[in-house]
Amino acid sequence: MNKEFIPYEQALALKKLGFDEPCLMYYDYSCTLVESGVYEYKAPLYQQAFRWFREKYNLLGYVSQATISKGKVFMFGCNEGNDTLFEDIDSDFKTYEEAELECLKKLIEIVKNDTIGSDGSSVVLFKLKSISSI
User: Fold this and answer.
1) In angstroms, rounded to a whole number, what is the distance separating the alpha carbons of residues 12 and 49?
2) Which of 32, 95, 105, 119 gets the highest tally of CB atoms within 10 A of its CB?
3) Which of these, 18, 65, 24, 37, lies nearest to 6 by C-alpha position?
4) Spatial separation of the C-alpha atoms in residues 134 and 118, rounded to whole Å
5) CATH 3.30.300.230 assigned to 2-112
6) pLDDT below 50 — which residues of the chain?
7) Which of 39, 11, 23, 40 is nearest to 105 (CA)?
8) Calpha distance 77→102 (Å, rounded)
9) pLDDT the model gives residue 88
10) pLDDT (0 to 100) of residue 122
């Protein structure tokens, strides 16, 4: 069940961005998931983290699947409302979970670098990567 919770590094980053939602698990001071006791950071589920970005910043992170000459691959993207901010179609992640983690990292980067204003309005849009490599 631990794979349902975001990694410690991303939990720390979310806390720095203001995440303070109730969670089922926590990271203790040794970066281990625990249910209760003395803890350092909340450990949100992936779905909680993605919901938080949607509700607080109007950012929708998503993972999609494609079949290309190399076989089945996963990619991710991020929308702000109806506008595409970023789409990583060049990485060819082998698993959904790899793409999901990279998507979460990108959402954190977007907010951390102030490319989304506190009112949810975009400040900088990212260019889409070329689809010609697929």
Assistant:
1) 12
2) 105
3) 24
4) 36
5) no
6) 117-134
7) 11
8) 10
9) 87
10) 46
Token pair, residue 134, equals: 């697929």
Please state the domain extents for the chain.
Answer: 2-112
Given this model, what pLDDT does residue 115 score? 58
Picking from 68, 98, 102, the residue whose alpha carbon sits closest to that of residue 86 is: 102
Contact 111, 124 (CB under 8 A): no
- Give the integer Cα–Cα distance in Å for 45 and 5: 4
pLDDT score, position 52: 98
Tokens encoding 2: 């631990």
Angle between helices 8-16 and 46-57 (to 10 degrees): 20
Cα 79 from Cα 110, distance rounded (Å): 11
Inter-residue contact 106 to 86 (CB < 8 Å): yes
Encode the chain in three state secondary structure. CHHHECCHHHHHHHHHCCCCCCCCEEECCCCCEECCCCCCEEECEHHHHHHHHHHHHCEEEEEEEEEECCEEEEEEEEEECCEEEEEEEEEEECCHHHHHHHHHHHHHHHHHCCCECCCCCECCCCCCCCCCCC
Strand partners, 112: none
